[in-house]
Amino acid sequence: FSDTYHSCLTNQRLDQALSAITKNIGRSLDIVAFDACLMAMIEIANLIKPYTHYLVASQEVELAPGWPYHLVFKPLISQYVDPQTWCSHIIASYKQVYHPITDDFTQSAIDLTQTGTIEHELDILSDTLKQALLLQSNKSVASYIYTCRSRSQCTYFAEPSYIDLHHFLSNLISYVDQIHLIEKTEEIKNHIKEHAQLCCQAIEHAVIANEVGEQLHKAKGLSIYFPLRIVDPSYQCIPISKNHQWLSFLNAYL
Questions:
Q1: Quick check: 48 pLDDT over 90?
Q2: Do 221 and 163 contact (CB within 8 A), yes or no?
């Protein structure tokens, strides 16, 4: 929301803007960076990857002063800096300023050429969890997912429907023995563990820089939308919901 213009920048407007910009300059951008809250999400990464190589953003809300631009742009004054190196410098500059004053900061850089693997493994995992829900005994799978996503077990942010994807996946691996199914129990357990682990590895590979405060020490640089009750209708309109399986899983679970 813009306090200046009293309007919201929606995902659709962001898509339109980046499409127009890259068409106008005749190429994709090196970096799209958000001096804004809660933007380091797989949904945003999926939306902007046709237009840029790197995403720089925060999983958590940012403090009101925003980025320390005097530090962020300093290397560019006297020399060429390649995009990946500058991404890492942005993250380090943010930590330099905010680490001494808060334990709740986050800032990460994601290589968007690597996020396709995350999406692929998340699709397989989503389908497996849906299958497990259909075969569950005594609501064990629903209870298992609730535990893995719960605020007491999984890192979440000022918008509580945004959770750290890596932490959630790690919980799926840790608590998988809670599952009881009417059939295929071991097969599905192994499938969940395998693809949750592969998705974690893909996140670790894609997140090229990540700095967080002590209160958010398990935040690994990339969030995902996981509401507690209902899916906001607007979520159906973004590319990841149209082209991947996460929304289908959310609907099955909720």
A1: yes
A2: no
